[in-house]
Batch of 2 targets.
Target 1
Amino acid sequence: MMAIERVAIVGLGLIGSSVARAVKERLPQVTVVGHDAKAEVRDIARELGFCDIIADAPAAAVADADLVIFAVPVGGMADAARAVAPGLRDGVIISDVGSSKAGVAAALGAALPGHIVIPAHPVAGTENSGPAAGFASLFEGRWCIVTPGAGAPEDAVAALAGFWQALGARVETMDAAHHDMVLAVTSHLPHLIAYTIVGTASELEEVTESEVIKYSAGGFRDFTRIAASDPVMWRDVFLANKEAVLATLQRFNEDLTVLQQAIRRGDAGKLEDWFTRTRAIRRSIIEQGQDDAAPDFGRKH
Amino acid sequence: MMAIERVAIVGLGLIGSSVARAVKERLPQVTVVGHDAKAEVRDIARELGFCDIIADAPAAAVADADLVIFAVPVGGMADAARAVAPGLRDGVIISDVGSSKAGVAAALGAALPGHIVIPAHPVAGTENSGPAAGFASLFEGRWCIVTPGAGAPEDAVAALAGFWQALGARVETMDAAHHDMVLAVTSHLPHLIAYTIVGTASELEEVTESEVIKYSAGGFRDFTRIAASDPVMWRDVFLANKEAVLATLQRFNEDLTVLQQAIRRGDAGKLEDWFTRTRAIRRSIIEQGQDDAAPDFGRKH
């Protein structure tokens, strides 16, 4: 297996800085070099000390790296890749952490011709952003989806998978198009819906924003968490995964129309059937370790 | 102020049993009599011991009570009221904990003519149901909305408000129609949306249910919590608060269509603006003590 002794992380926000922290904690023999396009982020990163080296210049950051991970909004991948290109050594593994994969694979491939590009997506995060928001255990027990293209060398794919497993993640491989459909359902549509409803609630004439905040424990507050996620990151995700998001949104709209009609018609049986079916999914999510069993997400009462 | 020395709770699920537990803990001088239409729930309640007395007959449960609280699905309020009617003493305060108020006020008023009916709604709960799911601290720091009708005696309203404050709740009064509009936004629409998306995700052809569960940490799992709430309770809420729910749903649909168009057209600026605005609401909710500040709802990582 290819050895990964030096990792460069480009983009030191929530995910990039969590990768750095996890490497320092779980792979202490690996050197972590960090870079961020913003000087103030590099300053914070230096102060927090979660990388061995912070490089001011992108090409210097990736020099001698065995693995380069781009942890920038998916719309910024191509620019970030072009910026580091002059510093890359032959045989380096190029990867990322973006939430959409087909577009990122194309962008990185075009920006870095002749290099080994193996996109990846750790399905983990919080609603917070920036270098101070990261933590080493973010990937523990979470899935990391690796989407190697047809020509990706097997030993490089194995090395990348081993890297993520070392950070505590479980690894699955699939093709980029399927990833984008799966994540449209499990992540992108939920974010879009949450952003929508939080916007809707804050602009009603009949109900003040202060009332919405005050009585949010009735359910609304659950949506505000993911609607507090990084706006630029999510803008880019929706633009990059447009087709899959619009396709799943259409299915959601159909279902919402069916329930809307059931309410209007007073169809008690249809509502109760629907609400009964959806209970089982949460049980499975908890059984598979993807959420806490504690009521109310374990909030303090 | 009217003295409340004996409380009867009709319906011993999550909310009813939490009220009982909170009274035992915070108002030990008050006698709590519990009743549930289901014999197996009464058996569990006896075993758990959160009431002083469990009455098998509804009319016996309310005998000599100063306050009767109906904690049944809103569609079951009229039947529950008629069942206890023969046992009610003059001057008793009749209240409830239902999530819609105009319909409940009408139902209780019609079922119990000549009695003092003061509907109330503690905005609190978890996704769990049944007598074992309740706990004494459920109402601490949460709002309880009281919706007295025009003829409600002031001392009775004050006594009910004092009762909820004693259980740790903050009390607000408003008219029933406004309550129903506020809760349509902060609770009913969020539940409808969550039920919808969880149903949508479980029935796609392109993505298996097992994939949805596996990768749910990308955001989807947040929706599964409230979509695991009691199906009968929620069926009744949507039927009882139909007009307000459909009105807010229309606003939501408008906004979703605007965002859908922005994605289709690649309108990056509109998406980023929207996603930036929604961040502030979560901050306010946390500042006002209506949610935890810990990232990811404080889930363990």
Target 2
Amino acid sequence: MSNRILELLSSGSGQYVSGELLSRELGISRTAIWKQIKKLEVQGYVIEASPRLGYRLAGKPSKLTMPELMEHLRDTSIVSSIKLFESVDSTQNIAHRLAEEGAPSGTLVIAEQQTSGRGRMGRQWVSPSGKGIYMSMVLRPDLPLQFAPQLTLLTAVALCRALKEIAPLPIGIKWPNDLLIEGKKISGILLESAAEDERLRHVIMGIGISVNLTEDDYPEELLPIATSLRIASGGEPLDRAAVIASFMKQFEHLYAVYISQGFSPIQTLWEALSVTLHKPTKLMTPQGVVEGIPVALNDSGALLVRLGDGREMPIFSAESMRPPQG
Amino acid sequence: MSNRILELLSSGSGQYVSGELLSRELGISRTAIWKQIKKLEVQGYVIEASPRLGYRLAGKPSKLTMPELMEHLRDTSIVSSIKLFESVDSTQNIAHRLAEEGAPSGTLVIAEQQTSGRGRMGRQWVSPSGKGIYMSMVLRPDLPLQFAPQLTLLTAVALCRALKEIAPLPIGIKWPNDLLIEGKKISGILLESAAEDERLRHVIMGIGISVNLTEDDYPEELLPIATSLRIASGGEPLDRAAVIASFMKQFEHLYAVYISQGFSPIQTLWEALSVTLHKPTKLMTPQGVVEGIPVALNDSGALLVRLGDGREMPIFSAESMRPPQG
């Protein structure tokens, strides 16, 4: 139904097509037409409505296509294969399944839309069609389990550098791996690991990036805490395939540095990009509330927090972090 | 078919029942009877055969029963529920599924038999019916991912102490978590972890213990490297429920020590029980072959190996370890 409307609008070559004509051609009411138009808008089509003139197709969703992705990723060797989906429950779930079935390292799952995108701690990840990047990659790093949190921090550094390359914005890393622009979240990273004793079996690296979302795409309660590259850089849509390629190049480079030189250079880069350090913070940890000033990462990737008495406490994991009250 | 034979043998109250009678009652050949008898033996029944007298039921497999397990585990609080199976592919697989479905910490899966028991690195675990302990427990420890390898070492200490309590044998720990008696393996531990970034989501603690296996239960190639508590302690079968309870008590105790005092006391106990330390060793690590003398564990649970030049190298994971050649 909405496909037929799309055809009719497209045949108008950017000119208005009257609601009456659409209604007659499809044999449905003008209210029904309007509902189909809304569906198309959700898919990323930009449709202008005029009470007098009808509807006009003003913009198509920019779809990620295989040839375009292949072209952009030509210079990287970290991606071994790409699975591109229109709509999935969660790219993370699909990559998990592929990993269990033996998919090699570098298997990359990308979807235009997620119906149950997952963020850290089971939180939902807003994933409207054609607007963001929703991807999960199977990694089989030859690393001991203890090093997985370092990989989480490395991923944040790679993504931060990639986004800054695409759009020169003040993007910073909130420990451990959220990216923020002026306090608003722009991307999320979720590394899910499966290990056997002290050995990593595989890691599913999930990345969500709010690239071309507009303010209309967010539930109202998220507007004060979430933004997109497009909103933050002034309104023009960005090329998602270029963003993906930029991340993969950064990740490949930093991973090579990490394997040859260890965590120390990654640690330095993370600290330089962090918006978490040197600000009084209250952390909800499994062991209770910790108040202090985060001063650095330690060797294993934990956040070192200086307490009131001057002691430095390594924080391995925290539910949430925020400025202390009052 | 074999159930009917069992009935007939049981009705003999320990006396011989002729093959002729069995053959007539079941309407099958004496060769077919013999095949059914073999099946029963595999299930743990002890059946004596006499060419002249026929067959005699000399022993039944000792089955683990729920009331017996509940009774033995009454004093522990770490087990929240028990699922007892006759035969499964792998208790580890079942516990994984339960964990994914939300099973609480302490959910314990026990099976009399595994058809595809799994050991470390995808190796098979010999799991004949009624002879060993094959169990997997869902744990949801509030620990950062980095600490999972410490849990592996803690499990080895708990199991070693439990088995020594049951049978006073020279049982030692081979790094990280195999238990050996005079170089022969008596149990295996496999901790499979699922993590989200720096947080452990759940751990499936798999334990296989060769309790009452006899030499006939092992493929010939395993005899030089595998043994059972029964073989090592002189031939009498042991009470498996008591072994399970002994382990759970030790694990519960040591876990409480670990949570309140950290890894250091566990480290000390592990080192005292280890058969790995202070012997020249060749380790196949993902980074290559390392030769040296293991001297201790480090804080994060890695094995510290002193190299020829006196440096100490932390080994996080190794494919195999054996004495250097020649």
